[in-house]
Amino acid sequence: MSKRVLQHPPEDSTGKKYWRSLGQVADTPEFRGWLEHEFPRGASEFEGGEVSRRNFLQLMGASMALAGLSFAGCRRPEKHLVPFTRGTEWSIPGKALFFTSSMPSRGGALPLVITTHDGRPTKIEGNPLHAASKGATDTYAQASILDLYDPDRSRTFRNQNGASDSAGFEKGLDEVINGAGDGTGLVFLLEQNSAPTRDRLRAAIEAKFPKAIWAQYEPLGGTDAGIYANGLQAVPLLDKADVIMSLDCDFLGSESTVEQTRQFTSRRKPEAEGGMNRLYAVENRFTLTGGMAEHRLRVPASLIGAFTLALATEIAARTKDPVLSTLVKDLPTGTATFDPAWVKESAVDLIEHKGRSLVLAGSRQPGAVHAMVAAINSALGNFGKTLVGRAGAKPAATISAVKKAIDDGIAKTLVIIGGNPVYNAPSDLDWGNLQKDFRDNKKGVVIRVSQHEDETAQLSTWHAPLAHYLESWGDGYATDGSYLSGQPMILPLFGAWSELDVLAKFAGLSKPAGPELIQETFRQIAKPADFTVAWATFLHDGFLANTAAKPEQLAVAASATAYAQENFTTPAFNSETFEIVFVPDSKLDDGRYANNGWLQELPDPITKLSWDNAALISPASARKWSVGTGDIIEIRSQGRSIRVPLFVAPGHADASLSISLGYGRDFPGRVGGKDETGKSAGFNVYPLVTTSQPYFLVGAEVQKTNDKYAFAVTQEHNTLEGRGAEFVREGTLEDYKKKPDFAKTMGMDAHAKWKMENGKKVEVVNESLYSHPPLTNIHQWGMTVDLSTCTGCSACMIACQSENNIPIVGKAQVQNGREMHWIRTDRYFASFDDETNDPEMVYEPMLCQHCENAPCETVCPVNATVHSDDGLNVMAYNRCIGTRYCANNCPFKVRRFNFFDYNQRKIEDKGLYAWNLTAPKGTEETIKMQKNPNVTVRMRGVMEKCTFCVQRIQEAKIAAKVSARDTDQIRVPADAFTVACAQACPNDAITFGDISNPESSVSKVRAGERGYRLLEYLNVSTRVWYLARIRNPNMKMPGAEKIGAYSRGSGHGGGHEHGGAEHGGHQVTAEHTEA
Amino acid sequence: MANIFPRGSNILPLKIILCLAVIGTATTAGFAYYFTNKYTNVGYQPTQPVPFPHDIHVKQVGMDCRYCHSAVEVAAHSNIPTTQVCMNCHGQVQKDSPKLQAVRDSWQTGKPIEWVQIHKTPDYAYFNHSAHVNRGVSCVSCHGQINEMPVVYHAKPLSMDWCLECHRHPEDALRPLSEITNLDWKPTPKSGQSVADAQQEIGLALKTKGNINPPDSNCAGCHR
User: Fold this and answer.
1) What is the ipTM of this complex?
2) Which residues have CB under 8 Å from B1's CB, separation 6+?
3) Which of A257, A803, A907, B106 could join A980 via S-S bond, C-beta 3.0 to 4.6 A?
4) Do A950 and B79 lie within an 8 Å CB cutoff?
5) CATH code assigned at A401
């Protein structure tokens, strides 16, 4: 008898489709391969390495024999318990301590709370007391803990002649300082940062050395054209805006701050106070912002200016605003045309919401576009309402000014702290040769302080290691302008100097031994009556209360009109060639996180590309040029050329290529830098970036080559049998208002809940063939995930990795589908009729659903995965023998298998594949320090998956028991703790807690009408509730009927309750057809 | 007629016997090793760098466990005292004793004393002291009569089976919170009642009062 194959009912052939990749739309063999096997062909075999399966068995036999010979291995090793000699305040061995700190960044510091175990910082969370974080973080903050422990960090002080030490470096600095005179020739090149202590030292240095040049460079810094009067900067209040138009402004992604993201998503739920907002996005590539938008227009980045002009003209004509009318008068419109209905209706919508609308331009668009957008916001009456002013930072010289100082022979000493100009300065400055020539031929002194011995450090006179922000005292202003403390968590691991240490020397102070510099700044800012108490409070809270910047009234500067009139150009756009757009990388930013394994391995939220960047091209352009994903192209411009592989990206603008910056590093870091073969992760695009065209490049020559490149893309991994439309449920605000619980009866759930019994329709209740331990615990854990607010930023993935000791596996293993992330953000494109050029984008965070009737538990031969009485699907690692049946039987594909000893081996292929007895074992000491001591570090051959952060659950339960003593008050208080992903989420998309406690947030969210569970018709009875995604389209816009339209476009859902009786209840049938 | 069995089969019985003997020996040895106290280290009594006599400190001096193991009620790990704690007394008492040389050395050099670990749970088992001593489980349940040990040894198996025994029947071990560190405490039997029955009675009462239901089938209770 042949095996009976039960097929999942096919996805509706009509209506909207939710797809992961172009391969799925085309149903390619590769995609079927990923679909039909839990692990793809080859992934579960011992291929590609040095050891064949046969070999493996031989070696296995040999090792058994060896194991038998070594009796010493059986003895218990003698271990020691080593207490402190003297007691340390607050320290209780094994108990975590929490300290506030803040992470500096160019957009403003992020207030943090750091978990430390026995003096080692292990986990980063947002500061829940502070409004700019409210406990949330982003991917960079989460991953920065790994940077602290990066084993490739610079450990030595070095001058050109050889190794030195801290004292030698200090002596070298003293010589430079003593010989600096009035500062002529002294040039500082630093990163952008608004820290008040740094500003104070800058003032002191400028007073001491009035001729010194203070320059700042950020490759991804914005354009500042002095658009607003009084040098103010505009700060958007996204929670105040009902209608938002983003003109290439990725304010939820690469240009986001935690505070802004939260402001935006707070208005994203249909239940939100003030109603749901609406987002228009105009952009060349899919960004997280574009994914959240109701209406999205694909426009090449170089034509954003032209679009802005069209929009401004429309608004000027309708509002008759004099400033805007003057500004747009006689500007060249260029040849590009945009859908007039799109421009008109969006303009009307913005005008209808005067004072409650907001137009944002991408920070890297030219100044003229910003001037125009400022005038638009002024015409819309948004100043003081959705857009307020804040005093700008003190201006600094640019990197071009530094080049000029060197070229003119003025510069004598160049101090470069942080940044990495040799790698990322505009290529027309030719910084590498400039710095080399300056050092070698002009007898200049280059003092380089950096965390790695990177490209810039190689060409320096002095190199000193730079302290991580968790190793040094600092301070900063949060995105809301309040004053934050920056406490160190650990002494510098490698004796590194902080930026403030170096600047203090130049300011004529001694290298600070403690917080004295910050204390002085604090005195000046806070003017405390009682310093000791105020300082302790400052460190405890992490910020100084009531110091958020007061909003100032904005006005368009008088010069802005003239500036726009003079500078506005519409680049000659040619649809027969490509514009090249240099975009910030969602993982490496400008390249600074290149050696961070968590970020390198994190799949890009949009493309799901890991360990690489690529030139993104639209499907239509790819067809037109007969190219596909992996084809290497060559791009030439002004005598420079790069080779980069293409990646076909749905939703991309035609005739446009987006390439993210930050890859292809030269420095010898073992994660992102060059390996033995000379290949580093990704491709370096900086050679095409120039001072005049920092963001997009028009007129480059693009040529096909015959070479191919293999990516590691996770978009087709863990696909769910074409159940996209079943898993992701969305509707419009109108649908929601008509029937708030529409999501509960969509898809198969329209049939699932009823069956016919004696001619009567009865609801199906939990019926399972298997028995499970009764769910008798007083706590029952559950989670909700709100698809309306999830932007897909992936902070949850890194937070989970950091909390749960999840290893990285390397590019080759990702290609095999062996990535280990416990939570992933499934990105679906959604479109009608297999349209791939302009789909919508939906995110669904996917993690272990902790099914009450879990399919994985029933197939485990050794009971390694079982159910607990508090509703968790638990994994006992020490029981697991690695059959992988559970992963095979998981309908959500959330189980991860340790194919190798990722924690004992280097991720370079050779290390993973090399046989145990010959390969060196063990991991770097510094990496060990990051591990969470409350989570088992898993070994090879063990299955793992999301545990709902069981270590946090147990800690909370034990804490409740400890405080209960011999009473029965052992219930964990509502919302006493949460899981790592929920804690990190800046959008409050994830809520976790005790569903049996009606007071808990999760109980309240779960009771909401939008909630639905996955595969309810299979009666797996999951413990994760998803809340349907609601969109708020403007029905007058072209194509609006398709937005969030599944419920209307197909026969299923949308209050469709004709019952499943005629289909025989909730059975899985191959012949499922829709009437 | 040709031979049905090849000539080599003559020694087959010998081979079988030999194999059985090897398997039998291995099984016996396996049981003898893995299923006895030897494997669980009961009786393990290493020499410590300082010959610290628990019996003198508890029985003669009358010190409470928590004077030195001060974090036992708040943390998962019950701390080994710092050298400073030793010196609190031994700065004045027995300050010239040669047995305390290592303590004085540690105090002067700042180099910690390396005590040999006796009680050890595997890395994948997360035992929490505070959850036990705050809910009525005494030190003696797992560590034995430490108060009578001149040199500490491994008294109980600390195997998973042994843990679960108590997690399934916590009433066998529960006692009033005031008696947790009194290692000599025994329930007072009523007339005609055995000590075991008295323990059952008081244990069950405490179990009900405190709603004590330790995880007995939830793997995540100990394995994370």
Assistant:
1) 0.89
2) none
3) A803
4) no
5) 3.40.50.740
